[in-house]
Structures are given as structure tokens and as C-alpha cells.
């Protein structure tokens, strides 16, 4: 019993598409390695070295333990900045989202303008914002706070607007029909129905922002990122590794807490 | 009438609304306290803000290119895009293979727990720290940047892929097992084809993230590309116009990538 001709043709064609896709991806990979000057052998060779570094330095020595209080303070500062940036951004994003959402916008033009602002805020990377703010705010904790704030506003404004679009439709219509004003509708229908979802997004952004704050800190000379950079550049690797451990503990703790909260809230 | 002003309580104070209020109260409380706790080193915020507005104005209206030509800037963008592509691709291949062993319905519980724990750790370390850890062996440069970014992408994609594998209907797998299909056949004929939509969508989303990461690693960890030019323009030459040009270029590419990712997400119906 042989496979019918038509089926065989389909199979051959599917194999050809697969091979063509493989060839394109292969060419892109080789091309990208050439453009970026990447050598696979050097990359693979760096893995045992990195693992070895972690194995040696992740057990804190006396020097690292002396750095512990300082690491704790900087970690706390970084968490504080991440939470502040997220909370302030959530407030701003909520206003923008109400102006942007199809169901609650006062005017289509407002929606278009707000969407453009949000898009610019999130599509300019946080690092680029940090480099822009560095020119005027200098190496200051506010530089990082401001860059995280702007990036988060862009991200949350879109997420919030989508959330309002999706869930508030029927409630808004019902209130409109009963003669409620725009402000009443927003305050009584949009707000209560969406609060759990909006808070869940906020928790997610706090997590993201802690990681980003570490990065921004290296550039702006603040927080835990800067401390890592100092230890790293002075080859105090044991303390640098303790910073990594500290960041991991904080990020996983916040992730676990927000997952638990999300389960209760949503 | 007095009674009309009383609110009708529609929902009781359930555990969820208490938790919600408490969460918000804590977050807002921390934020308010933060204004008193943060050491701003007596920065004159009004003056810095005025300078910022001036900077933003001149960035938009007077983009300049003194230390690089436009072809050079485009080449730098290409380098950054290639960094993003390479790290996404390598991370995706690794995540696809190991993701199968991290899916509850396809692997043993011990192995699942081990892999999921491992990638939770990998994801918790910020990308820049991975890059700097790899740089100890490989030196600062594209090799360290690519290894570090690949590592983090692997952690992110493994979680995404294995979760979409787990969503596959258990009955399909049972039926295939009953008809004598082995593990490899189940994976290649059922699991991967039916998760293709989410896989493509998640991978492209990661590409979008990795473009941003590549900009960041150029600025913070010597990975080259447009991020390095941005770092030099702002941190070294203090040239607002150049920062403007570079920002415009990055913004343009990022918006194009976002449009692509949104389209994909919509056609594949993937939730974040």
C-alpha cells in the first residue's frame, strides 16, 4: 500500500518549507555572528569559567560579610526606587489609560495623543532614558527613578487601556444608560471592576523594575547596580557575588509574594 | 430621606478585597515614605528639570552626528539587532529542548522541579550581571554579552515554552501513548506542532526585549552597537544632539518591532 500521490506531494512541500526555514535561520545566525564578531568556541569556553567563578565566589568570605550591611542598604534603596517608580507610574498610567481606552475616552483625539505618548515612553529603552536624564540630573538616585517611572508609565498605560477595553464595556454601557456622568461612570464602574487586575500589573512591574534598576544603577552610579560595579571593578569578586545572591533573594521573594497575592486578589 | 444616602454593600469584605486594599496601602505607604528616605544629595530639582526640558527640546529639534556618520549609526543599529537575534535564537533552541523536560506532562517530577528552579534563579539575576559574570572569563565584549543575554533568554523562554506545553490536552497524549507512540513521536507530532503559535509569539516578544537588552549591554557592558554610541554621546561627549539622533533611531526600530510583536500576539491569541 503506497501513500497517495497528493499526500506525498503535501509532505514533500512541507519538508521543503521546513528546509527553507532552516536555511534562512542558519544564514541569519551565521550572518549575525559575523556582524557581532561572535565566536561560538569562545562563547562555549566562557561557560566553565563563569560557572567556576560562581562556585568559588558564591560562598561569601570574611571580606564579603563585612560588605553585607552596605549591600543590604543599597538593596533596600533599589527596592524602594522600584516600588516608588511603579506606584507613581501606575497613578499616571491610570489617568492616561482612561483617556486612551475606547470605552472611557472623552474624545478620540485624546486617545490618539495619549497612545503616542505611551508608545514613545515605552519604546525608548529605560537605559536610553537614563542616558538622557543623566545629562540634566547627573549621577543621582532621581535619574534612575525618573527613567524607571517613564518606562513604566508607557508600559502600564497600554496594559491598563487594554484592560479597560476588555472588561469595562458592559458596566460602562449600563451606567451610561442610567444617566450617570462620565466621571461617575469612571469612578463607579471602571475603577472597582479593574482594581485587582491593575494591582496585579503593578506587582509585575515592581519585579521587572528591580532588575532594570540594577542595570540603570550601573550607569547612573546609584543603588545596588553601582555597588556591584564598584566591587567588580576592584576585583572584590566575593562581595560582587554576594550582591548577586542578594538580588536573587530579593527578586525571588518579591516574585513569590506577588504570585501569592495575585492568587488571592484575582 | 436619610436612608437614600446609604451605600448598598454589593460585595462583602472578602479575603480578596482585604488583600487588595492591604497591598495597595503598603505600596503607597512605601512610596510616600520614600520621598523622605531617598538621598537626593540636595539636587536642585527645579534647575535639573528646566535643563531636562531644554535637552528634550534640542534632542527633538537638533539631532546631530559629530562622532559618527549616519551609515556608521545604521551599522551600529544592525549590530544591535544581530545581538538581539543571535541571543534570542540560541536561547530559543536551548529552551525548546530543555523545555520538554521541564513540562509536567512530558517529564519526571524531579527533573521538572530541578529545571524550573534553575531557570527561576537564572531569571532572577539581571541580564547585565550575567553579562559581567561571563566577562570575567571572556573579557568585556560581544562574546560575554551574547552569552549573558542568551542565558537570561533561555530562562525566560524555558518558562514560557514549558507552560504552553503543559496546556496541551492530556487526553491527546494519553491516546497517543495508548496507540504505542513513543516519547519522541508524541513530542514531534503532537506537542510541538500544537504549541507552535505560542512558541513563535513568545520568541518574537523575547526578540523585542533582547533588542532593548542589546542597547543596554552596549551602554553598560561593552557589547558595542548603538548602545555604546549612546553611552559615549551622553556619558563622555555630553552631546545632546547626538543623544537625540541615536534615541530617534532606537525608537524607530523599537516601534517597528512592537508592531510586529503585537500583530503576532493577536493572530496567535497569546496572553502575556
Question: How would the blueprint of this fold be written?
Answer:
The complex is a heterodimer of chains A (266) and B (272).
Chain A: H1 5-36, H2 40-57, H3 62-100, H4 108-123, H5 126-137, H6 141-167, H7 169-177, H8 182-220, H9 223-233, H10 237-265
Helix pairs in contact in A: 3-4, 3-6, 3-8, 3-10, 4-6, 5-6, 5-8, 6-8, 7-8, 8-9, 8-10, 9-10
Chain B: H1 15-37, H2 45-61, H3 70-101, H4 109-124, H5 127-138, H6 142-166, H7 170-178, H8 183-194, H9 196-220, H10 226-236, H11 240-268
Model description:
By secondary structure, chain A is mainly α. Chain A is built from ten helices and no strands. Chain A is globular, with a radius of gyration of 25 Å. Chain A starts with a helix and ends with a helix. Chain B has 272 residues and is an all-alpha fold. Chain B has eleven helices and no strands. The longest helix of chain B has 32 residues. The termini of chain B are far apart. The mean pLDDT of chain B is 88. At the A-B interface, helix 1, helix 2, helix 3, helix 4 and helix 5 of A face helix 1, helix 2, helix 3, helix 4 and helix 5 of B.
Summed up:
The complex is a heterodimer of chains A (266) and B (272). Chain A contains ten helices and no strands.
Q: What would the principal axes of the Cα set say about the shape of chain B?
A: globular
Structural class assignment of chain A:
mainly alpha
Instruction: State the helix count of chain B.
Output: 11
Low-confidence stretches of chain A: none
Unreliable stretches of chain B (pLDDT < 50, length at least 5) are none
- What is the overall pLDDT average of chain A? 89
- Overall SS class of chain B: mainly alpha
Oligomer kind? heterodimer
**For this structure, what is the CATH class of the largest domain in chain A?**
Mainly Alpha
Q: What's the end-to-end separation of chain A, in Å?
A: 56 Å
Which range does the strand content of chain A fall in? under 5%
Largest interface: A-B, 76 and 77 residues
> What's the number of structural domains of chain B?
2
Rg from Cα of chain B: 25 Å
β content of chain B, as a range?
under 5%
Amino acid at each position: 500500500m503506497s501513500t497517495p500521490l497528493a499526500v506525498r506531494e503535501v509532505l514533500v512541500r512541507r519538508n521543503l518549507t521546513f528546509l527553507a526555514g532552516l536555511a534562512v535561520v542558519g544564514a541569519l545566525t551565521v550572518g549575525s555572528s559575523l556582524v557581532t564578531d561572535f565566536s561560538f568556541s569562545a562563547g562555549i569556553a566562557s561557560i566553565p569559567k563563569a560557572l567556576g567563578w560562581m562556585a568559588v565566589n558564591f560562598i561569601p568570605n570574611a571580606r564579603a560579610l563585612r560588605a553585607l550591611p552596605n549591600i543590604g542598604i543599597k538593596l533596600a534603596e533599589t527596592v524602594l526606587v522600584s516600588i516608588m517608580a511603579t506606584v507613581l507610574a501606575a497613578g499616571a498610567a491610570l489617568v492616561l489609560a482612561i483617556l486612551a481606552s475606547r470605552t472611557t475616552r472623552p474624545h478620540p483625539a485624546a486617545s490618539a495623543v495619549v497612545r503616542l505618548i505611551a508608545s514613545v515612553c515605552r519604546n525608548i529603552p529605560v537605559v536610553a532614558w537614563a542616558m538622557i536624564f543623566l545629562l540634566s540630573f547627573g549621577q543621582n538616585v532621581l535619574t534612575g527613578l525618573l527613567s524607571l517611572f517613564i518606562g513604566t508609565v508607557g508600559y502600564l498605560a497600554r496594559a491598563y487601556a487594554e484592560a479597560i477595553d476588555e472588561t469595562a464595556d458592559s458596566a460602562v454601557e449600563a451606567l451610561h444608560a442610567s444617566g450617570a456622568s462620565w466621571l461617575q461612570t469612571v469612578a463607579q464602574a471602571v475603577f472597582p471592576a479593574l482594581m485587582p487586575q491593575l494591582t496585579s500589573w503593578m506587582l509585575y512591574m515592581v519585579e521587572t523594575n528591580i532588575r532594570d534598576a540594577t542595570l540603570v544603577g550601573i550607569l547612573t552610579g546609584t543603588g545596588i547596580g553601582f555597588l556591584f560595579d564598584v566591587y567588580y571593578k576592584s576585583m572584590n569578586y566575593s562581595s560582587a557575588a554576594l550582591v548577586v545572591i542578594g538580588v536573587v533573594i530579593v527578586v525571588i521573594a518579591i516574585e513569590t509574594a506577588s504570585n501569592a497575592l495575585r492568587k488571592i486578589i484575582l | 430621606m436619610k436612608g437614600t444616602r446609604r451605600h448598598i454593600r454589593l460585595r462583602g469584605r472578602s479575603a480578596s478585597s482585604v488583600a487588595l486594599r492591604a497591598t495597595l496601602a503598603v505600596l503607597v505607604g512605601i512610596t510616600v515614605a520614600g520621598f523622605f528616605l531617598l538621598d537626593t544629595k540636595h539636587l536642585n530639582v527645579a534647575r535639573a528639570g528646566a535643563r531636562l526640558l531644554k535637552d528634550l527640546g534640542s534632542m527633538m529639534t537638533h539631532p546631530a552626528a559629530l562622532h559618527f556618520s549616519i551609515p556608521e549609526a545604521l551599522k551600529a543599529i544592525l549590530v544591535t539587532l544581530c545581538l538581539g537575534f543571535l541571543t534570542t535564537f540560541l536561547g530559543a533552541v536551548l529552551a525548546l529542548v530543555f523545555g520538554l523536560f521541564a513540562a509536567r506532562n512530558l517529564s519526571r517530577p524531579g527533573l521538572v522541579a530541578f529545571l524550573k528552579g534553575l531557570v527561576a534563579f537564572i531569571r532572577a539575576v539581571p541580564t547585565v550581571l550575567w553579562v559581567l559574570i561571563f566577562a570575567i572569563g571572556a573579557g568585556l565584549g560581544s562574546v560575554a554579552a551574547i552569552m549573558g543575554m542568551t542565558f537570561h533568554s533561555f530562562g525566560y523562554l524555558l518558562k514560557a515554552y514549558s507552560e504552553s506545553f503543559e496546556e496541551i490536552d492530556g487526553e491527546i497524549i494519553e491516546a497517543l501513548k495508548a496507540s504505542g507512540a513513543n516519547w519522541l513521536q508524541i513530542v514531534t507530532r503532537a506537542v510541538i506542532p500544537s504549541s507552535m503559535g505560542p512558541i513563535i509569539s513568545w520568541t518574537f516578544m523575547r526578540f523585542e526585549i533582547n533588542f532593548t537588552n542589546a542597547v543596554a549591554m552596549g551602554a553598560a557592558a561593552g557589547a558595542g552597537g548603538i548602545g555604546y554610541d549612546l553611552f559615549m554621546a551622553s556619558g563622555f561627549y555630553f552631546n545632546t544632539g547626538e543623544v537625540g539622533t541615536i534615541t530617534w533611531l532606537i525608537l524607530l526600530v523599537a516601534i517597528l518591532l512592537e508592531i510586529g510583536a503585537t500583530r503576532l500576539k493577536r493572530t496567535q491569541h497569546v496572553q502575556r
